[in-house]
Amino acid sequence: MISEAAGFGLRLENYSPLTHHFDEMVGADGAPRSHWARVVNFLSSLNREGLAHRWDEGRRVIQQNGITYNVYGDPLSVDRPWPLDPIPLILDPAEWASIEAAIIQRATLLNAILKDLYGPQRLLYDRQLPAELVLAHPSYLRQCHGVMQPGGSFLHLYAADLARSPDGKWWVIADRAQAPSGTGYALENRMVSNRTMPDLLSRSNVRPLEEFFQTLMRTLLEIAPSHRENPRVVLLTPGPYNETYFEHALLARRLGISLVEGGDLVVRDRRVFLKTLGGLLPVDVILRRQDDSFCDPLELRADSLLGVPGLLQAIRDGHVAVANMLGSGVAETAALSAFLPGLCKHLLSEELKMPSVATWWCGQDVPKQYVLDHPGGLVIKPALRARREPPVFIDKLSDADRRQFLAKLKSRPQEYVAQEQVALGTTPVWNSHGLLPRHFVLRVHAVATRGTYAVLPGGLTRFSASKDSLVVSVQSGGGSKDAWVLSKGPVPPMPPPQPRSLVTDINRATFDLPSRVADNLFWMGRYAERVDFGIRLVRGGLVRVARESRTNQDLSAICDVLQGLGYLEDPEARLEVSILAKELDTLVTDPERRGGLLWTLNKMHRLGWLLRDRISADTWLVLSRLTQKFVEPLPGDPFRRSAAIDLLDRSILRLSAFSGYVMEAMTRGAGWAFLDIGRRLERAVQVLEMLRFGLALGVEDNEADRLEALLEVSDSIITYRSRYMSSMQPELVVDLLLLDEANPRSVAFQLARLQEHIERLPGAADLRTRPEYKTGLEAMSKVRLVELDHLMGLDRRGRRTRLQVLLRSVANNLQQLSEQLNRAYLIHALPIRQATQG
Amino acid sequence: MRYRTRHTTTYLYGEPVSLCHNEVRLTPRDASGQTLVEYNLDILPRPESVASRLDYFGNPTSFFCVDEPHTRLEISAESVVEISPRTVPAKGATPAWETARDAIREEIDAFQFVFDSVFVRTGDDFAAYAEPSFPAGRPVFDAALDLCTRIYRDFKYQPQSTQVDTPVEQALKARRGVCQDFAQVMIACVRSMGLAARYVSGYLRSGKDRVGAEASHAWVSVYCPGHDWVDFDPTNNRLAGLGEHVTLAWGRDFTDVSPMKGVMVGGGEHLVHVSVGVVPERNRTE
To answer: Which 172-231 residues of chain B touch chain A by CB within 8 A?
Structure first.
């Protein structure tokens, strides 16, 4: 019976909220709040395994959809799954209505403040706001002064972080006015709830989130300056290293717009264009997820290479609109909170509906004195800096540190702002011990729409890692929750999605592909093929070393190719099998070994990472598993070698799964074409080099073992056997690997596919005027015109010179072809640089 | 006095530049005692268009983009300006520097030049250097003039000793630099005393006893309540409003007024050549 009771871990009586904090689910009397009733009933109807079972599904959905977040600067190792808690935060309709009204008011107010600060500055001249708070703030971008976008809005998207104090009141603890994150995660959280608790969700009258995104898209289209029929909207991301890159990719997909980095855009004649394979396409609206000071290296931060030079001038000239407007970041200034009640009355003639957490800006005497007199319980933040810095908790400092800090504050008081530490409310979080109270913060989002704001009914809920921690951040071990805003009655069905996104999808299949992405796909293809060939080659070596057949021709063939392709560093490796074995081991396990398998794999993985919005989630999954397995350490001797061979065997399977996904799941557009061009080119080069170093350099009496090794490495042994049984002849091997257009591993096959791609790429109508077409044709003709007997003939010194010359000449053609394709299609991907100032 | 100024910047690139964007501040601005008579900006290769505007500080600013491949870019600005000497406050005529410091809070347009900026951060080391010039009650003009002279004496003018982005702290420590460093050290000192100072870029009429005339020059403007802004040239230990300086632009520091900014694609190695000439108009030989 005891174990039975323990099974019901979700019963309410086992939940003990913290004293002195407001709990969302349970009231002061210990009874569940009425709007939680359905959830509480639902949870008590499940046993622990029931929820665990449902939650396995949740985790699977998270894994499957690749819902992740990153930590800055470390894109490879920390692709962390999104830590979502199954139990939603429940908000009742009346309470939500007051939150909604407060957020709309605050967004309206901040927008009005920005409009004044970037215009007449009446607030400063009339002393409504201390001038230094704005004029000394690095986020106040003077370059943006006087620039007005269509609709006159500065703040198209706004978010507030809300906390619940012990008396049950909501407080704003932070404003997000640059490029607020969280809407995408909110959407994903809801999707997971939908998959794990469809029954509860549909019974609970939860307000859906979709409308917010439709409104956002409508707003973006409305601010397009040109009023073209179908304005082009793009989402500007700082790139895959950004902590919320996943969300950028997701939102772009959701809105049906292109995800671009600064390098994908270019300003010409004061207009913004997207660089694509098909040429430059005009851009009308930029939804930015990049901090404003990084957006234009010409006028803003010169050290930013993420931006688009000339962007600000294009905005100024009214050729492009940006949401949020550059310069909006100054509205995030914490010290501004202290002045909002007055500004609200002054600008909107209303009382501020929701208070900010108590804020004292030390640049004024009275607040400064208060802070010096009552430093306990305060958090001190920099008031005049653009980047967010860790706040200082006065309570946590030693006496000496505290004295030193307060002295610093006294000498430059205007640089500090103090805020009260809020006793954050709690909400239940599920883990293997049952339900536990955790502190949380709710981020609520608003989008501008026709003179007012619309609020996302829900938001991003983040909770702390432990009950003692007031730090609510996913990055520091906390988690996230879905937020359910209940509706008074049944929720009406959503209108169907706009047809616009469909149009954009159709465009995807054409050459509307950023050149940088094409370049990445091209290299992705090359690395995939290089790794595939390298694995077969190294495996061929390892297997033979294991057999200790060092005198055999087959191992020497493998060594010839390994050495020819630059895989071996130690020249002794050919002579001494223990050195060879060590070299092969390094090639498999050492990430620092240039050109080694793990090294190349890491490059491929990184490209895959960069291309996550272009390849399917499954393709990415296969790729990351492939790298993961390679990174896991191999066992020591005596099992090391066989473990390595086993790893290579499995990796070949994973690589073919990768190729399979690419073949089956990728749209046959320009993206796929460049990936395939990369693969074909690389495969042709590898086979040419293999034949050159493995066969063309010399002739031996009995070449059967050597030929067999080459066929094995090039994955053509079955084909060969099915045709010629077991008789190994160099002419037949060269025919199969070089000339046979039916063998998908042959050079001829690759050249034919390359030529097909080249003919379909955009460019001059007359193919013969295109250099890459001519080079491809030349290579293909050389191979097609080969007379095998002549080619395989020996010279006076008994060597296959003719074969060698042909292999080299075709390889040179391919090198040239790669350069020509680069010049014709990918050169836009060049980085920008700062000119020396004269 | 009427001057003709010619400022030519030539970039030579090792590899073609396929695209460049530039922002230049080469037009003499509206300033007291200065009238622009004639102005011409020549750019080769010729850009499709040049967009001109006044920036936040009222400096004429031009934006252009060259999008044909080029290995040489030449930007040449020629102006004719009429300059009359400004009246300089008499010694003892300006308010005490402490009074000036407290009064600035009420004048927002000047007040913004009290704060730290990208290149100029105030600090105790600057205050310590400045203090001997700022004894209690000394008129603000007198104090600034004394500071200007001290910087001129204590610092060595040394071309190529610093970069455009050399931190002002380093220039203070090394006691040497070019006109930009002289100006920014003085600005940091003035601001560290709680007063307003701005960075002025322009040209200086050449002469044997003057440094900085062959390139673009920079000096300092200090706010003296009741007497507006007064210009000091610490590189040459003289006042800058006496009819020998042509003002291009002013701002908080070099970043606000940089005569030439550019971002480009391609280019490889590159060389820059700058030539500046300031000639009294009646001496024209053309």
So the answer is: none
Kindly tell me the number of DSSP H helices and DSSP E strands found in chain B. 7, 14
For A220-234, write each residue's pLDDT tens digit.
999 998 767 789 999
pLDDT at position A83 is: 84
d(CA A584, CA A571): 13
The predicted pLDDT at position A506 comes to 37
The order of strands in the sheet holding B197-204 is B238-239, B229-233, B217-223, B197-204, B245-251
Stretch B79-108: mean pLDDT = 92
How close B183 comes to chain A (CA, Å)? 18
B242 close to B85: Cβ distance less than 8 angstroms: yes
Tell me, what's the pLDDT at A389? 67
**With an 8 Å Cβ cutoff, are A838 and B259 in contact?**
yes
Select from B21, B56, B260 the Cβ nearest to the Cβ of A142.
B56
Decide if B261 and A835 are in contact by the 8 Å CB cutoff.
Answer: yes
ipTM above 0.95, yes or no: no
| Three-state secondary-structure class, residue A132 | helix
Q: Is B261 helix (H, G, I), strand (E, B) or coil?
A: strand
Instruction: Say how many C-beta atoms besides its own lie within 10 A of residue A494's C-beta.
Output: 11
The edge-to-edge listing of strands for the beta sheet with A321-323 is A258-260, A233-236, A285-288, A321-323
What letters, b where the CB count within 10 A reaches 16 and e where it falls short, cover A323-336? bbbbbbbbbbbbbb
Residue segments in chain A with a per-residue pLDDT below the cut of 70: 1-11, 48, 63-66, 70-80, 227, 386-389, 475, 493-511, 548-552, 827-832, 835-838
The Cα of B91 is separated from the nearest Cα of chain A by a number of Å equal to 31
Q: How far apart are alpha carbons B103 and B44 in whole angstroms?
A: 48
Answer yes or no: do B111 and A135 touch at CB < 8 A.
yes
Give the pLDDT score at A496: 56
Of all residues in chain B, the percent with pLDDT exceeding 70 is: 97
With beta carbons less than 8 A apart as the criterion, state whether A363 and A383 touch. Answer: yes
Q: What is the mean pLDDT of chain B?
A: 91
CA distance A270 to chain B (A): 8
Largest CA distance in chain A: 102
Calpha distance B168→B187 (Å, rounded): 10
For chain B, how many residues are written?
286
Tell whether B269 lies on the interface with A, counting CB pairs under 8 A. no
Q: What domains are defined for chain B?
A: 2-84+258-283 (2.60.40.2250), 97-256 (3.10.620.30)
Considering the domain A358-420, what is its CATH architecture? 2-Layer Sandwich (3.30)
| Nearest CB neighbour to B264, from listed A138, A299, A835 | A835
Give tens-digit pLDDT for B251-261. Answer: 999 999 999 99
Q: Which chain A residues contact residue B196 at CB under 8 A?
A: none
Verify whether the Cβ–Cβ distance A268 to B261 is below 8 Å. no
Q: Which of A490-499, A780-789, B35-44, B277-286 has the lowest mean pLDDT?
A: A490-499
CB A698 within 8 A of CB A647: no
| Residue among B24, B255, B265, B273 with most chain A CBs within 10 A, to mutate | B265
Confidence bin at B285 (pLDDT 50/70/90): very low
Please give the average per-residue pLDDT across B132-136, as a whole number. 97
User: Other CB atoms closer than 10 Å to residue B264's CB: what's the count?
Assistant: 23
* Domain ranges across chain A: 86-335+423-508, 358-420, 516-665, 667-828
